[in-house]
Amino acid sequence: MSNIVYGVSGEGSGHSSRSKGMISHLEQSGHNVKVVSYDRGYKNLKDDFDVFEIEGLHIAGSDNKVSIVKTFTENLKKISIGNKKFQELRHEIFKNNPPDCVITDFEPTTAYLANHYDLPLITVDNQHRMRYMAYQCPPGLKNEQLLTENIIRGIVPKPDVSLITTFYFGQAKNKRTFFFPPILREEIVSQSPRGGEHILIYLTRGFESFLDQIRTFSREQFHIYGYDQEKVEGNLHFKTFSKDGFINDLSTCKAVMATAGFTLMTEAFYLRKPYLSLPMKGQFEQELNGFLLSLLDYGKNMRHIQRDTIASFLYHIPDYKKNLQKYKAADNSAIKMKLNELLENNCKQLILFHQNRYHLAH
Question: Using the 8-state DSSP alphabet, how is residue 97 labeled?
Answer without folding.
Answer: S
